[in-house]
Design a protein that fits this description.
Elements: E1 9-13, H1 18-28, E2 32-37, E3 56-60, H2 65-76, E4 80-83, H3 89-93, H4 97-103, E5 108-113, H5 128-135, H6 154-179, E6 183-188, H7 189-195, H8 198-205, E7 225-229, E8 235-239, H9 243-253, H10 270-281, H11 286-293, E9 300-302, H12 306-311, H13 313-318, E10 321-324, E11 327-330, H14 354-360, H15 365-373, E12 377-378
Parallel strand pairs: 1-2, 1-4, 2-3, 4-5, 5-6
Antiparallel strand pairs: 3-12, 7-8, 8-9, 10-11
């Protein structure tokens, strides 16, 4: 059974982080994504490269005029293109949107950068931590009185970058199918990480969020929304915001008759009650707390390691993780009822599909052989 994006073709210029993640999301759900890799030694273990799963690879020398011709032939067959170079690089190669969209007017040209295509920082280097620093997001991540703590590279690279680009590509293709006109997508991780904080900006506007770390409802300022260490040195997460969930937590934890835990939205009590809960949670092991609180609508969970997440009964029941070619990895998501995603294929070695891709474009065996011998195509 084909995935929901069967029939969609995307050309991906190989990169790191957000671009490959966007391409993975599309490929997971059935899009034919062809990755253009650069000449040179590829990964010795491509099957461990989870972000590059489920697509074909062709190696093209973009410094050769014939290589640029191959790329243009490929793009003429595509619905969309994903590139993550600094602004101006594709134009200098002769593969800018003006050129490629003139040959394929319905092309959706997705550009993934940290700062965006314009602005004073557009050509500066950066990583996830830099983009969330300037978007205001990093300032909110951390505990009271401590330095900001980046959530690995999830907020800009993947949430505000790759995921947003995948959404944007589909929105652009939908528009192109209606109008016959493609367009350029300027996807900036700085702005993507900012839009992930939209609810917090709303809280700020209505006066319920202070521009200070660790003092607010969702940033570990509240005793009922925090992570606590247990007796055995493990951790549990508590998110009992609503009164009914807070009451369920108090009842299961034996705190229903303790008046100090009444009126849980009284911010003046939060620091004291956090200290109380730290001591309480350290009185039992994580498993003991799970036995006491799970299934009670207390918004409670154990904090699982990656290994533990693989063995979690709920995750196994839903097949949230898969093992592909010996590599544990998250399964394609979300789940579609009529067009479920297929089991991902391991990442292909760079250039493994060069000949097949060219053959499908109409190149004959003699031409393909010449391109390989001349170093234009790798495989």
């Amino acid at each position: 059974m084909a995935g929901a994006l069967d029939g969609l073709r995307i050309i991906e210029f190989a990169g790191i982080g957000p671009g490959p993640f966007a391409a993975m999301m599309l490929a997971d759900h059935g899009a034919d994504v062809i990755r253009i890799d650069r000449p040179g030694p590829g990964s010795p273990t491509p099957e461990t490269d989870v972000l590059n799963r489920s697509r074909r690879s062709i190696v093209v020398n973009l410094k050769a005029p014939e290589g640029l011709g191959v790329v243009r032939d490929l793009v003429r067959t595509a619905d969309g293109l994903i590139e993550g170079f600094r602004p101006g690089v594709m134009e200098r190669l002769g593969l800018g949107p003006d050129v490629l969209m003139d040959e394929n007017p319905k092309l959706v040209y997705g550009r993934m950068t940290g700062w965006g295509q314009t602005g004073p920082l557009a050509r500066d280097a950066g990583h996830d931590i830099n983009y969330i620093a300037r978007s205001g997001a990093l300032h909110a991540f951390g505990r009271r009185g401590e330095k900001p703590t980046p959530p690995v590279n999830a907020a800009a690279d993947f949430g505000g970058g790759g995921m947003l680009l995948a959404f944007s590509m589909l929105a652009g293709v939908s528009s192109a199918q209606r109008t016959g006109r493609g367009q350029v997508i300027d996807c900036a991780m700085l702005e993507g990480s900012a839009v992930l904080m939209s609810m917090v900006w709303g809280f700020r506007a209505d006066g319920t969020w202070r521009d200070e770390r660790g003092v607010n409802l969702l940033d570990t300022g509240a005793h009922f929304y925090d992570v606590y260490e247990t007796k055995d040195g493990k951790y549990v997460a508590l998110g009992a915001i609503e009164p009914q969930f807070y009451e369920a937590f108090r009842r299961a934890a034996g705190l229903l008759d303790d008046p100090s835990f009444d009126d849980h939205f009284d911010e003046a009590k939060w620091v004291l009650l956090t200290d109380r809960l730290e001591a309480i949670f350290k009185s039992k092991t994580r498993d003991e707390w799970c036995a006491l609180l799970e299934g009670r609508d207390a918004c409670f969970s154990p904090v699982l390691s990656m290994e533990e997440a693989l063995n979690c009964e709920h995750n196994q029941a839903r097949q949230s993780f898969l093992n592909v070619a010996g590599v544990d990895q998250p399964a394609p998501t979300p789940k579609f009822s009529a067009t479920p995603a297929q089991t991902p294929r391991p990442a292909r070695p760079a250039g493994a599909d060069s000949a097949d891709v060219l053959k499908a474009l109409g190149y004959n065996a003699e031409k393909i052989s010449a391109l390989i011998q001349n170093g234009v195509i790798g495989g």
